[in-house]
Specification:
Layout: H1 2-5, H2 28-34, E1 44-49, E2 52-63, E3 68-75, H3 85-100, E4 105-111, H4 115-123, E5 127-138, E6 141-151, H5 152-159
Parallel strand pairs: 3-4
Antiparallel strand pairs: 1-2, 2-3, 4-6, 5-6
Length: about 160
């Protein structure tokens, strides 16, 4: 996990995962010191393909008292992009979240520069709930912030098809 996510200063995946936020590397020793915050946690899981770590999937509380949960995903290795791995992982994660928590909605936020992330939301039956225009600035260009979401009843209806 350290090699994929924290070792390199400019990893390829960071060009798509909120590149307008600074990416901070850390030494292996620093990673080991803080690993308990990410390893074996309910809100942060690994994505494995044939036993190989290819990404992570997580959730965080936007507002826990109202059960407003947001999720995120990173597929680190470019050779696993556009191969359905993200769609499969998100499908399993959404099922898990709705099965384990009394949630009404699950969603995520991305940016208009990440067309693959918008497309996976559409494939999953999510709705583009918000588009905040030109609020993400990166590499001399303004992009929109995109919020995708799906309600439990919508998810249940899709699963029953």
């Amino acid at each position: 996990m350290w090699e994929l996510s924290f070792k390199n200063e400019n990893p390829e995946w960071k060009k798509w995962d909120a590149p307008y936020f600074e990416h901070k590397t850390m030494t292996y020793e620093e990673f080991l010191t803080g690993k308990d915050k990410i390893i074996a946690q309910d809100d942060y899981w690994s994505i494995l393909v044939d036993g190989e770590l290819i990404g992570t999937i997580s959730y965080y509380w936007e507002h826990q008292p109202s059960l407003w949960l947001e999720m995120g995903i990173v597929i680190y290795e470019p050779n696993y992009w556009s191969g359905g791995y993200g769609t499969t992982a998100l499908t399993m994660w959404i099922n898990h979240l709705f099965n384990e928590m009394p949630l009404v909605r699950v969603g995520y936020t991305t940016w208009s520069g990440n067309a693959r992330m918008i497309k996976v939301g559409e494939k999953l039956g999510m709705t583009m709930e918000a588009r905040l225009r030109k609020v993400r600035y990166w590499n001399g260009t303004y992009y929109d912030s995109i919020r995708m979401g799906i309600l439990r009843e919508e998810w249940d209806a899709i699963k029953s098809l």
